[in-house]
Amino acid sequence: MSSEFIPLTADNIARFVPLYVSVFNAPPWNDGWTEGVALERLQSFARFPTFDGLGLLIDGEPAALVLGWGERWVKSWIFHIQEFCVAGDRQRSGLGKVLMSEFERRLQEQGFSSVYLHTGETAPARGFYEAVGYKQSFKAVSLSKRLA
């Protein structure tokens, strides 16, 4: 088994769309993504001026991804992870931890001081994030409002 990290860009992000769709259309999310809409989402992220992302290939095939963007804060730059996923048949294998560790290392080299992400309170991913060192911040709440 060979593994390779590749920086995600607007030019190569389409390669990761089937992975994204397969993960987020499966339980517990059951989102209902089409490849076209997922491509539109990921390409829009990749066009952000401070976008960064990292993909993990196993034997040449997309197995995991993490991506988001940086934001200037008062005394430093912070990074917001928008998406993170590992292929369903590779979850709980350690790949997610390896990918997250490598991505955080690269962010630190770029001068980012911290990383933020959002996940559901009862989402299975929450346990993963906590296991790799993420903690609930500021007793934050996520609010939304439907416009139509």
Short description:
The protein has 4 helices and 5 strands, in the order βααβββαβα. The protein has helices at 17-24, 35-46, 95-109, 124-131, and strands at residues 3-7, 51-58, 61-72, 77-86, 112-117. The mean pLDDT is 93.
Layout of secondary structure:
Blueprint: E1 3-7, H1 17-24, H2 35-46, E2 51-58, E3 61-72, E4 77-86, H3 95-109, E5 112-117, H4 124-131
Parallel strand pairs: 4-5
Antiparallel strand pairs: 1-2, 2-3, 3-4
InterPro entries: Acyl_CoA_acyltransferase (IPR016181), GNAT_dom (IPR000182)
Organism: Uliginosibacterium flavum
Protein name: GNAT family N-acetyltransferase
Question: How would you explain this protein's 3D organization?
Answer:
The chain is α+β, with helices and mostly antiparallel strands and 148 residues long. Helices cover 29% and strands 28% of the residues. The protein contains four helices and five strands; from the N terminus they run E-H-H-E-E-E-H-E-H. The protein has helices spanning 17-24, 35-46, 95-109, 124-131, and strands at 3-7, 51-58, 61-72, 77-86, 112-117. Strands 1-2-3-4-5 form a five-stranded mixed β-sheet. The chain is globular, with a radius of gyration of 15 Å. Pfam families: Acetyltransf_1 (PF00583).
Strand order of the largest sheet: 1-2-3-4-5
Number-wise, the strands total 5
Mean pLDDT: 93
> Count the helices. How many?
4
Low-confidence stretches: none
Q: Could you spell the SSE succession in H and E letters?
A: EHHEEEHEH
Query: What gyration radius follows from the Cα positions, in whole Å?
Result: 15 Å
What would the principal axes of the Cα set say about the shape? globular
Strand proportion, as a percent range, falls in 25-35%
Largest sheet: 5 strands, mixed
Helix and strand composition category: alpha+beta
End-to-end gap: 48 Å
